[in-house]
């Protein structure tokens, strides 16, 4: 049906009408009528349609404000905004449908916009949606931003470089904003202020301010203002501090709460556990303390619980199994105690379980993991679990990564582990596993295995190296193999040559002999090799200088850069470790320290231009330091200490601008120490033990000719003539003193007939063994000799220290064949001779110090400051031990001058025992 006014409109228009007449035929008359009818119908429809263009015209004020906004920006792909066109037609701009034509939406995400946010944006007072995320905006928000944009409902400025404080409101009127995303910027200031826009955001549903620099307390009254409609709160990665205050429990619809990576302290408020809609609860890397409340089991919708890296103690809630939807439980790096609660196995949806670095205990083989069929990642490392490898884990066929390292687990790896067909990462280091041969034969059947870490187990066996060890398909995906500190003997196993995917090999701290095999250069992906602290001999293999990953940038680019299922840790010392979540982040390194390698360092070593760490310390390398080392432009650590290197330090090494650790100590180097570049940052300990080296760092002038004594050298420098003279003087002086003392004692014995030794002031007795009596587990490295030789008096460490005045050197009365002899005066006036046995003097001192700290509760120095020598106490004691050997009662045990010099050159070498890194 057509309206009347449509016909009126039609009659007022004039259209040209062309009529083509054809001769009518009977066959075409009906079809012609149909065509005519359809044509008229089409004309009527077109006339009735509204105009094709919009009647909305952009508001002029908004038009001008947008042009001012645009003038502060630049972009690699310019916007199609022109001053002569309607702004409602511009890219990213939407207007309302009213005659006012006000701009209601400005959305330009990921447009590579670079510049500031112009104040004119605040003039768009009808704006409801503003999305400028993922650009390069910088500067602060306009002062009147929230006060003017009172219609704003959605604000997304995430992933920019905006900074400054969030503008406050100048009124208390409520604002309708629903979604706020300011994440990944540089905003700072506090959000809990009374004039913050959050205080009037009555309709807020999602707030994300993560990855900024906000400080102060986290505002907990948000839910009071938002009528409980909030579903997401993300405060993570900021500088928030203080306690979490109650209030979040009012968020009845809250599903995601993140506040990790801040400086929060105190206990988790029980109020939070009232937010029973929580699905994701995340508070990692803070300073939270107390226990995990049993009220956590009320969060029955929870899928992710992240509380790692805090100071939480106590036990895991025994009813944790009520969280049946839980998929990720991450409680690592806390102080949790007790066993695994049996109800944990009711969390059948668990995918990730990480409880590493706690104080959890109990027999792990008693836990039934078989119900966790979806478990993909299990990390129970660094706890106190006992028992054997839990056989129930073999039923968790979805397992990809398992770490049980640093526990007290024993036994062997069983063939049942082959049921874990997806297993890619396995670390069982620092336990008591045995049968390395059997483990290797079994684990090569795990076709998906990429990381195998068996380090620091007491296996004490040979490395199997026959032709049948590795089949053609075994370990073909293996990238990391760590067998350090397993007391393995034999040679570097030849079957490693068949694993072309190997990138990291750690065989350190074993008893491997023979030479370094040349076939290592066939491992095209190898970039990390640690063979340190073994018994390897021979020369540095030339083929090792051809490792493709260390010589070719193209090969490095081809290496897979996927993330590890669990992080790999590298331990530089016993007290610290470095964490690597990506294998390619490991520094390319060659560790060959503390072996018996000899010969010259080949000049071809300069080909390893992508090497970051080179450690050849404590070997027998000789010759000059090759100048070609300066080609290793990426080198960060170079350790050549403890060898027989001669000549000068190449000045070209100054060009190694990334070199942060350098040592050539204890060699036979000479000449000036290079200055400038990184060499100005190295301590004197990097050069000590080289008598003919000179330079400002050693306070030894280079103006004198070699062999001249340098009076300006400090008392700790290794001036051999001065030290040898001092030692010889001590030896003869001590010998003379002993002789006089012996004559005096004999004269006393002659004065007192009958040999009444009870009245003798002091009597020393020689012994032929430096070991404590067998069966005495608490025997000290100190032997007591009372005046009455028929009885031994038991003394505590504190009594012994008091009797010898903390082993004051004034009480040293002589040297025996195995150590220093001190005079001790007890509280009752009786006298003792106390012999301090030689050996690992550093270890002995640490034991004494630890015992003293336990008894007295103080970290005080034990030895006289004069003997300690400003932190060089071990070295001073070793020098005195050399002096004692000089006056040994057996003349055949007394050293020659050459032996004395050699011993003195090795003084302090024990300081390098823990400098080599190890993967675990």
TrEMBL record:
Coiled coil: none
Gene Ontology MF, one: ATP binding
SMART domains: LRR_SD22, LRR_TYP
Domain Leucine-rich repeat-containing N-terminal plant-type span(s) in chain numbering: 60-96
Keywords: ATP-binding, Cell membrane, Glycoprotein, Leucine-rich repeat, Membrane, Nucleotide-binding, Receptor, Repeat, Signal, Transmembrane, Transmembrane helix
Membrane spanning residue stretches: 722-746
Binding positions for ATP per the UniProt entry: 836
Subcellular location: Cell membrane
Listed InterPro entries: Kinase-like_dom_sf, Leu-rich_rpt, Leu-rich_rpt_typical-subtyp, LRR_dom_sf, LRR_N_plant-typ, Protein_kinase_ATP_BS
Gene3D superfamilies according to UniProt: Phosphorylase Kinase, domain 1, Ribonuclease Inhibitor
Membrane topology: Single-pass type I membrane protein
Superkingdom of this protein's organism: Eukaryota
GO CC entries: plasma membrane
Principal cellular location given in the protein's record: membrane
Family membership noted in the UniProt record: Belongs to the RLP family.
Full protein name: Tyrosine-sulfated glycopeptide receptor 1-like isoform X2
């Amino acid at each position: 049906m057509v309206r009347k006014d449509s016909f009126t409109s039609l009659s007022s228009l004039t259209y040209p009408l062309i009529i083509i007449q054809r001769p009518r035929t009977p066959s075409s008359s009906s079809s012609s009528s149909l065509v005519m009818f359809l044509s008229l119908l089409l004309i009527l429809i077109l006339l009735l349609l509204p105009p094709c263009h919009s009647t909305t015209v952009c508001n002029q004020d908004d038009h001008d404000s947008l042009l001012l906004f645009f003038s502060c920006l630049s972009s690699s792909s310019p916007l199609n905004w022109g001053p002569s066109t309607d702004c409602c037609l511009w890219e990213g701009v939407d207007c309302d449908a009213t005659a006012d034509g006000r701009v209601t939406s400005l959305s330009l995400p990921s447009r590579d916009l670079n510049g500031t946010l112009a104040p004119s944006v605040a003039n768009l007072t009808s704006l409801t949606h503003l999305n400028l995320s993922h650009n390069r905006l910088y500067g602060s928000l306009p002062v009147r931003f929230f006060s003017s944009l009172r219609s704003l409902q959605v604000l997304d400025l995430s992933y920019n470089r905006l900074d400054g404080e969030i503008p406050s409101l100048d009124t208390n009127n409520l604002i309708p904003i629903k979604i706020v995303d300011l994440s990944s910027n540089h905003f700072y200031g506090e959000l809990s202020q009374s004039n913050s826009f959050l205080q009037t955001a009555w309709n807020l549903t999602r707030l994300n301010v993560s990855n900024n620099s906000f400080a102060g307390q986290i505002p907990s009254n948000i839910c009071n203002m938002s009528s409980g409609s909030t579903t997401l709160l993300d405060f993570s990665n900021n500088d928030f501090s203080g306690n979490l205050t109650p209030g979040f429990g009012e968020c009845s619809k809250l599903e995601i709460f993140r506040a990790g990576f801040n400086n929060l302290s105190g206990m988790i408020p029980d109020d939070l556990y009232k937010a029973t809609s929580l699905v994701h609860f995340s508070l990692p890397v803070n300073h939270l303390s107390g226990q995990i409340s049993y009220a956590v089991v009320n969060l029955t919708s929870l899928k992710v619980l992240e509380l790692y890296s805090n100071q939480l103690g106590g036990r895991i809630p025994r009813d944790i199994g009520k969280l049946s939807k839980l998929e990720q439980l991450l409680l690592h790096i806390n102080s949790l105690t007790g066993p695994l609660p049996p109800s944990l196995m009711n969390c059948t949806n668990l995918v990730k379980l990480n409880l590493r670095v706690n104080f959890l205990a109990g027999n792990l083989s008693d836990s039934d993991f078989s119900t966790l069929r979806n478990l993909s990642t299990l990390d129970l490392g660094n706890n106190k679990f006992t028992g054997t490898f839990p056989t129930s884990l073999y039923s968790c066929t979805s397992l990809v990564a398992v770490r049980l390292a640093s526990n007290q687990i024993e036994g062997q790896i069983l063939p049942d582990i082959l049921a874990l067909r997806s297993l890619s990462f396995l670390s069982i280091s620092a336990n008591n596993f045995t049968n390395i041969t059997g483990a290797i034969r079994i684990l090569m059947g795990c076709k998906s295995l990429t990381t195998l870490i068996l380090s620091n187990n007491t296996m004490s066996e040979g490395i199997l190296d026959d032709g049948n060890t590795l089949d053609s398909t075994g370990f073909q995906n293996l990238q990391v193999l760590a067998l350090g500190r397993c007391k393995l003997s034999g040679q570097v196993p030849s079957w490693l040559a068949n694993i072309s995917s190997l990138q990291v090999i750690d065989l350190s701290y074993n008893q491997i002999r023979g030479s370094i095999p040349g076939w290592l250069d066939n491992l095209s992906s190898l970039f990390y090799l640690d063979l340190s602290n073994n018994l390897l001999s021979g020369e540095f293999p030339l083929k090792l200088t051809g490792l493709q990953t260390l010589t070719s940038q193209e090969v490095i680019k081809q290496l897979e850069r996927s993330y590890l299922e669990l992080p790999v840790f590298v331990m530089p010392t016993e007290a610290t470790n470095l964490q690597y979540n990506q294998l390619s982040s490991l520094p390319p390194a060659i560790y060959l320290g503390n072996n018996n390698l000899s010969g010259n360092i080949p000049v071809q070593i300069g080909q390893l231009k992508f090497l970051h760490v080179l450690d050849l310390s404590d070997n027998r390398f000789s010759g000059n330091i090759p100048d070609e080392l300066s080609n290793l432009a990426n080198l960060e650590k170079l350790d050549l200490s403890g060898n027989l290197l001669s000549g000068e330090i190449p000045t070209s090494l100054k060009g190694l601008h990334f070199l942060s650790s350098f040592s050539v100590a204890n060699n036979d180097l000479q000449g000036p120490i290079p200055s400038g570049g990184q060499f100005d940052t190295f301590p004197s300990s990097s050069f000590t033990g080289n008598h003919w080296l000179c330079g400002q760092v050693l306070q030894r002038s280079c103006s004198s000719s070699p062999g001249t004594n340098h009076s300006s050298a400090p008392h700790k420098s290794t001036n051999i003539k001065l030290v040898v003279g001092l030692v010889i003087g001590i030896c003869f002086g001590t010998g003379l003193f002993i002789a006089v003392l012996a004559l005096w004692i004999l004269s006393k014995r002659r004065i007192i007939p009958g040999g009444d030794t009870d009245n003798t002031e002091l009597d020393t007795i020689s012994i032929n063994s430096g070991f404590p009596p067998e069966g005495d587990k608490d025997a000290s490295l100190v032997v007591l000799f009372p005046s009455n030789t028929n009885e031994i008096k038991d003394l505590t460490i504190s009594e012994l220290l008091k009797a010898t005045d903390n082993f004051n050197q004034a009480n040293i009365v002589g040297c025996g064949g195995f150590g220093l002899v001190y005079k001790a005066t007890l509280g009752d006036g009786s006298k003792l001779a106390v012999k301090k046995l030689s050996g690992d003097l550093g270890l002995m001192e640490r034991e004494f110090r630890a015992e003293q700290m336990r008894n007295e509760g103080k970290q005080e120095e034990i030895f006289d400051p004069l003997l300690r020598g400003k932190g060089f106490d071990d070295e001073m004691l070793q020098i005195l031990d050399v002096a004692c050997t000089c006056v040994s009662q057996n003349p055949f045990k007394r050293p020659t001058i050459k032996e004395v010099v050699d011993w003195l050159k090795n003084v302090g070498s024990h300081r390098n025992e823990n400098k080599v890194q190890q993967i675990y």
